[in-house]
């Protein structure tokens, strides 16, 4: 759905200081609107010479579509996922009254069985479309195959899975994200410095998308004049102390001037540097959330790469909305901005 198609309804709602749903009720002569409010809206419609288009007629349909949200539940490690949920709810508040029933299926991001249980429950509810955070690769593949069998449309946010074809993917161009970090990092180091790149992961994490970031990062340095030594590691941990053990051993033989954390756990590295009193290693990470921001404010993280997770959720909802209600072709790849957040601008960053 192109925003311009609803711009007239939005403008009427703005001028009348009411919701889009209220304008829609007046446009289709439904009950539930106070007479004074109705008269005000009709006056604005006349003033704007607004004529409901084909889309508005479609929105008058009585059909209710069921959309599911399959996403990690709130916990200390999953704080990031609060933002896309907020984005989804914002979209629902704008468009949900036009025929959408939204249902949440929260899973434990450290428990594959939890994910499977939620997918089974979702599949039993005759859902029309679903927004998915593909944390578990094999299980998401199986779920996607079942969705295809049942003609359930699914949208991926945050990361992709090779050879799986969602209705739309909404997230970063991962290779380009890595290249952006590479470009940024060349200003933080000297041409032959050592660099450490880490995926700090738990056993169940999807790491394929993180490897794409590393590929882009390494490509940038291969294409440029800098000839840095780059070490890349997947570090599986169940407890933060395990990362400290890795770093202690690594620094016995290596002298990195910069560490790039490809996922949202830069705070673990920052905490290590702070605890050990190390101030000569630059740190770049991903993810706009409280733990990272605290270390960014204190100067232990130099830059955070962010991709507007709230907007991801909003766009994911609209992708389903376009397909089912607006009956329009959905853009397959919706790449998000690759934003650079610093201690100086984090307060003004709109998630």
TrEMBL record:
Instruction: Name the keywords, alphabetized.
Output: DNA-binding, Transcription, Transcription regulation
Query: Which intervals hold domain HTH lacI-type?
Result: 7-61
Which InterPro entries does the entry link to? HTH_LacI, Lambda_DNA-bd_dom_sf, Peripla_BP_I, SBP_2_dom
Q: Which GO terms describe its molecular function?
A: DNA-binding transcription factor activity; transcription cis-regulatory region binding
UniProt-listed Pfam families:
LacI (PF00356), Peripla_BP_4 (PF13407)
**Could you tell me which Gene3D superfamilies the record lists for this protein?**
3.40.50.2300, lambda repressor-like DNA-binding domains
Protein name stated in the entry: Transcriptional regulator
This chain's source organism reads Sphingobacterium cellulitidis
Organism lineage:
Bacteria, Pseudomonadati, Bacteroidota, Sphingobacteriia, Sphingobacteriales
């Amino acid at each position: 759905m192109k925003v311009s198609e609803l711009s007239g309804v939005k403008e009427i709602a703005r001028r009348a200081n009411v919701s889009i749903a209220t304008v829609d009720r007046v446009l289709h002569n439904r009950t539930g609107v106070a007479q004074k409010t109705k008269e005000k809206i009709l006056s604005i419609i006349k003033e704007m010479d607004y004529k409901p288009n084909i889309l508005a007629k479609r929105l008058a349909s009585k059909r209710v579509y069921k959309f599911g949200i399959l996403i990690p539940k709130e916990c200390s490690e999953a704080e990031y996922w609060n933002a896309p949920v907020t984005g989804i709810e914002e979209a629902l508040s704008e468009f949900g009254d036009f025929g959408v029933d939204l249902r949440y299926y929260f899973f434990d991001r450290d428990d594959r069985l939890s994910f499977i249980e939620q997918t089974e429950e979702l599949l039993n509810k005759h859902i029309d479309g679903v927004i998915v955070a593909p944390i578990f690769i094999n299980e998401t593949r199986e779920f996607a195959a079942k969705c295809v069998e049942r003609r359930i449309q699914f949208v991926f946010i945050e990361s992709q899975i090779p050879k799986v074809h969602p209705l739309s993917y909404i997230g970063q161009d991962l290779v380009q994200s890595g290249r952006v970090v590479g470009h940024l990092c060349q200003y933080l180091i000297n041409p032959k410095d050592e660099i450490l790149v880490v995926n700090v992961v738990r056993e169940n994490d999807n790491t394929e998308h993180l490897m794409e970031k590393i590929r882009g990062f390494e490509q940038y340095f291969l294409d440029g004049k800098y000839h840095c030594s780059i070490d890349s590691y997947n570090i599986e941990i169940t407890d933060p102390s395990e990362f400290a053990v890795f770093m202690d051993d690594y620094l016995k033989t290596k002298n990195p001037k910069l560490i790039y954390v490809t996922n949202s756990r830069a705070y673990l590295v920052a905490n290590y540097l702070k605890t050990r009193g190390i101030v000569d290693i630059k740190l770049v990470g991903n993810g706009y959330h409280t733990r990272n921001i605290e270390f960014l404010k204190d100067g232990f993280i130099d830059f955070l790469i962010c991709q507007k997770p709230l907007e991801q959720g909003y766009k994911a909802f609209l992708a389903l909305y376009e397909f089912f209600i607006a009956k329009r072709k959905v853009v397959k790849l919706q790449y998000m901005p690759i934003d650079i957040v610093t201690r100086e601008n984090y307060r003004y960053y709109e998630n």
